[in-house]
Amino acid sequence: MKNEVVLSASKVKRRKKLRKIVKLALLFILLLLLIIYIVVGLIYNNGNFTILLDKNLYLDRGIIIYDDPDYKVFRTELQAKALDFLDNISYKWLPNDLDTSQNGSHNGENYVAYTFYIENMGKDMSDYWSEIEIDSVFKNVDEAIRIRVYKNGNQVTYAKMSKSGTPEKETELFKTDTLVALDHVENFSPGDINKYTVVIWLEGSDPECTDNILGGQIKLHMAFNSEFVEK
Known about the structure:
The chain has helices spanning about 1-45, 55-60; strands spanning about 50-55, 65, 75-80, 90, 105, 110-120, 125-140, 145-150, 155-160, 170-175, 180-190, 195-205, 215-225. It is α+β, with helices and mostly antiparallel strands. A hairpin with a 2-residue loop joins β8 (about 145-150) and β9 (about 155-160). The longest helix has about 45 residues, at about 1-45. The N and C termini lie far apart (about 75 Å). Residues about 35-45 have low confidence and may be disordered.
């Protein structure tokens, strides 16, 4: 009888210890999920597309970026408004006046559009590099994404290489898997202004635009730097 009592007490202790371990494990998992949620939220709550200016371009060369010609102040970042949902569309459905209709964010149904300017307000001729990079991708959305850049009225649409190994119709290839576009602007004189409009959408005619990318996300930025450093 005495041995049975000791054995029962030992079982109770083991059960209590096991419950504590399970509770701690569940708490750890919940905290881990919370951290992941916060990190992902910080990444994507900032929108789909951001424009960044190298401080050296402003401090050393007097170059600024802005999305309102009547409000020219020094900022190192411009933020396009995000879309809660992005369904696939055809490039044929995009308005013809995307680069002339509005400044700042002017998103439409299932596309992101943002118009802004870079100006040399310094005293000397300068140059700069512009780079569009993909920061993060979920569910291979980049396989069907299109990024169109208007620069002073001239447009180029960028896309990844198709699965068949040929460029997508009426597009230029991404420079790398994460570097979408690269441009070197030289002889940017005092008073010169370059106008940009960036449009982002999912191309429905792309063979990679399938149900497999439903729920996917993408985040990009366009950086204006004083020099290009190959990564």
